Amino acid sequence: MTKADLAERETRYRRVREAMQRAELDALLVAGKGHWWTGRGYLRYFTNFHLWGHDGLLLIPLDGEPALTMSSPALAVRIGEEGWVTDTRGDVYIVPRMADYIRERGLASSRIGIAGLRFILSAGSYAELKRLVPDATFVDADDLMDRLRSTKSALEIVQERELWAMAKSVMTRFGELVKGAKGVSQRELISEVTKPVWASGARDLLIFIGESPGVSEVPEDIPLLLEDKLRFHLEICGESGHWCEITINCAFKEPNDLERKIIEDELLAFAEVRKVAKPGNRLSDMAATFNRVMEQQGWGDLGEETTHFHFHGQGMDTIERPWFSQKRPWGQSQDWQLEAGMVFSYHPRRDVLPPGNWSSGLNEDILITEDGAERLSVDWEHRWRPMG
Q1: Who contacts 290 (Cβ-Cβ below 8 Å, separation ≥6)?
Q2: DSSP 108
Q3: What is the model's pTM?
Q4: pLDDT digits (tens, 9 = 90+) for 274-303
Q5: In b/e form, how buried is each residue of 145-179, taking b as 16+ CB within 10 angstroms?
Q6: Residues 141, 81: Cα–Cα separation, whole Å
Q7: Do 122 and 93 contact (CB within 8 A), yes or no?
Q8: Which of the residues 20, 202, 211, 228 has an alpha carbon 20 to 30 A from that of 127?
């Protein structure tokens, strides 16, 4: 895996300071926590350290070196050894330590943005911060942080491509091993399949498997039936901290006409969506294109609008902004314009099939380029694979 170096560090800090200047901020306070869904990526982006737990606060002044406090003294030392942030302190009470940093850096009366104010920093920590630094002006900087990391650097894109190459090899191996796995427990098969993932330096996995329509659960200690179809979904946090999502559809029995049609129509929609997924357009343009193609292919009633994410940003957190869902205002509140370098997890879904039929299960990561979206998988096969 290509590793981030100090040149990448300088690129990220330069970009964030340019954004801080535009927002008229004297400093940025980045909140983080060792949480899979949100918060871990905030700190990894600036420290190159993968949190397995604990809370933290990172101070990035407009001028001068950053400073970090973590709720674990041992973890603070280890992060400092990585070299991206060397001024680190550990204390169970992170807010008083951060207040010390703010005063020491001469920022006690400054304008400070907080990244993670809505979803990461606790209300109690925010209240304590305002009490300890009463003359500072704190403002919401979630949008600043999320817009910054939504466009990936050239190095990040290389890391994403490498992650996808590994994910495809693992899923291909699953397709080979599952053919002779009737009666083997789900957990036994998955443990064998995912060995190369851990060997590659992956940090976390989300795993779902199902042998009937609409079922997608974590693996259990139950035997594989392999009588109809099987869907296996894997979300991998690679060594670089980036995530990818990949699905394989295995058919031990021929798909029916509806099941064949839904996947062919969604693949057609996927191709059309990629054409409009270019800078200047919006996620709503992508969603409208998906709906249009599906309606043209005869799916007149696309079902009730839901909060399911058709598309969501993906990087050092498995779900990042911007995102889109049909139901207002849940997804469209983050309907920002697309920019080259954005990476999205693509899995639009509308409820159009009668009960008992398998959906397409189409899931892929796409990179926004000047000419439209590029498949990070390059050539991953989404159709049902005959298992023989």
Answers
A1: 269, 272, 273, 310, 348
A2: T
A3: 0.95
A4: 999 999 999 999 999 999 999 999 998 888
A5: bbebbbbbeebbbebbbbbbebbbebbeebbeebe
A6: 28
A7: no
A8: 20
